[in-house]
Amino acid sequence: MTTESQASEPAAKKPGTLAALAVYLERRSLVMLALGFASGLPNLLIFDTLSAWLRDAGLSLEVIAFFGLATLAYSLKFLWAPLVDRAKIPLLTKWLGHRRSWMLVCQALIVVGLWAIAGGDPARGLGLMALFAVFVGFVSATQDIVIDAWRIEAAVTEKQGAMAAAYQWGYRIAMIVAGVLPLALSEYAGWNTSYAIMAVLMLIGVLGVLGAPREAQHEIRAIDTGDIPAAPGRDLVEWIVRLALFVLGALVLGSGLAGNATLLSSGLSALGLGGAGEQVKALWEAKPWGAAAQVGGVVLGALVIYFAARPAPGLQTRPGRYLSVALGAPLANFFARYGQAAGLILALICVYRLSDFVLNIMNPFYLDMGFSKLEIAEVRKVLGAVMSVLGVGLGGFCIARFGLMKSMVAGAFAGPTSNLVFAWLATQGPQLWALSVAIGVDNVASGFSGTCLIAYMSSLTGQGFTATQYALFSSLYALLGKLIASQSGRIVEGAAAAADAGGAFAAFKPLFANLPAETFASAVEKSGVSAAALGAGYVTFFIYSALIGLIGIALAFAVARLNPQPKEI
Q1: What is the three-state SS of 12-42?
Q2: Report field, pTM of the whole predicted structure over 0.90
């Protein structure tokens, strides 16, 4: 989080290599490791591992998929982030500070929720188990809001890279633990015992909170409603109407962000509009324009939320004042602090990792090339995880050593460059060493650029609005990528057909003349083109994915050159 005083100070001398590495051994970084673990553990337990328990209990895949909506809260967390910024926890806030008190309460509730799931039986109490899964998802998303805010407020900008790296390391460790340990324990002690042990492991996060240094003094910006006469009856009715609209908008917006209209469809069915619900679900899942419908849902939901929080024309009321300020002030604060540069900064956030988000067809690509599922899993899950950890650490080191904006520019190059490695992989055939090189390079680049973006978004938040603004940024940066990624398969197939027809992309076909016969052989019947043409289609796609990354590179240079400094508001 950058302040006016920080911006006006002369540039400090950049630390040496050893000093940049030493930041990982600082107390805050070690605490961040524990908090990252506490963040990742409940996420995977309700999103992925729980599905194995449900399937083991004989439930259908349709029911299991519905449980995935328990994580919808992660897509909507920016809506109640203002509450986290403004509300104090009785007694605890005075003792631990604003952020740590919220973290401790969230972790205690997650332990309770996981313990309740551990005591459940999906065969006889599925509804109750679903309720607890949703509860854990909501509280865990709230914990993420607070952890991000504490991370930003507890360290200066130069150390945000290391803090982000430590968080991601802890998160990845938790994903391994939550993905492997419950399954192994279930074989010997049963699912109930394994989830009870997972609840106990959340104490790692509690220890992190108790060992965390207090964040900078948190400022709660008051909302003045003293000039509006109290009208208890009218205000109560207005609160009910506004919150009902707010929930409706959140449901539509969340369905768009999550790319899943099941909950929205179920809600319409409950209102007797089953036909409309099925139409919405079909629209969401349509190929290839379903992603456009999902983005439309995001826009529509946001508009409903906007009108739910907007003051009534010509009428000042306390609910209208409170909601409009609580939700609108963080965004207004950002634009006021950064002025004309605010739009450029938001554009950079939206496109910075665009070249990564369009790579949503990688598993089909690997299979088309002739790699086995086991080979893909081994390289992606083992080597990929190791290289990702290295990339994350490298990002934190470079931010500490060379500064945030220089690292941001380097990260903007990382994604497009690593995508070109996949174009090279396409010409190598099903060689395991080549797959290892490509996935290794891509994971290092992705880890590096992801750490840089997290640190940069952290630096943009303003005092009093840390949680809300960061939650907004983190929801914004993937939205454009979702829409563009919907066209990835069409680009491959279109370029392949053009290559077979002798078009411009046919120039890539000679690259595949001497490859083993099994290369793309299994995909020829499905695609209706020759193996060489399909290879040319993939090469074209990877070059395209690198070219759209040029937008992020240009914006990164523009922002770095402008170097906008926030005004103190």
Answers
A1: CCCCCHHHHHHHHHCHHHHHHHHHHHHHHHH
A2: no
Q: How far apart are CA 15 and CA 13, in angstroms?
A: 6
- 210: tokens are 């108790």
CA distance 221 to 214: 20
Please give the Cα distance from 310 to 402 (Å, whole number).
44
- Give the separation between CA 113 and CA 131, rounded to whole angstroms: 9
Whether residue 288 has a cis bond before it, omega within 30° of 0: yes
Cβ-based neighbours of 381, under 8 Å, separated by 6 or more: none
Measured N-to-C along each axis, helices 98-118 and 203-211 cross at an angle, to the nearest 10 degrees, of 170
**Residues sharing a CB contact under 8 Å with residue 453, sequence separation 6 or more, in sequence order:** 349, 352, 353, 408, 411, 477
Rounded-to-integer distance, Cα 420 and Cα 547, Å: 10
Nearest in space to 468 (alpha carbons), one of 26, 9, 130, 85: 85
Alpha-carbon span 70 to 139, nearest angstrom: 11
Query: Distance between CA atoms of 42 and 141, rounded to whole angstroms?
Result: 10
Rounded distance, CA 368 to CA 525, Å? Answer: 11
What's the half-sphere exposure (Cβ side, CA atoms, 13 Å) at 336?
10
3-state secondary structure 212-242: CCCCCCCCCCCCCCCCCCCCHHHHHHHHHHH
Task: Please report, for the chain, how many H helices and E strands are present, in that order.
Answer: 30, 0
CA distance 479 to 482: 5
- Note whether 339 and 568 are within 8 A (CB): no
Distance of CA 218 to the CA centre of its chain: 25
Residue 308: both structure tokens together: 């739910």
Terminal Cα distance for the chain, rounded? 14
Cis preceding linkage at 564, omega within 30: no
Asked if 333 and 465 touch (Cβ cutoff 8 Å), the reply is: yes
Average pLDDT per consecutive 10 residues, the chain (569 residues; last block may be shorter): 40 59 74 92 85 76 63 80 88 88 95 92 83 90 92 82 88 87 85 92 93 76 78 90 90 79 78 80 77 82 90 85 87 90 92 88 87 86 88 90 91 93 92 94 93 91 86 79 76 88 88 81 76 90 93 93 80
Give the Cα separation of 410 and 455 in Å (integer). 14
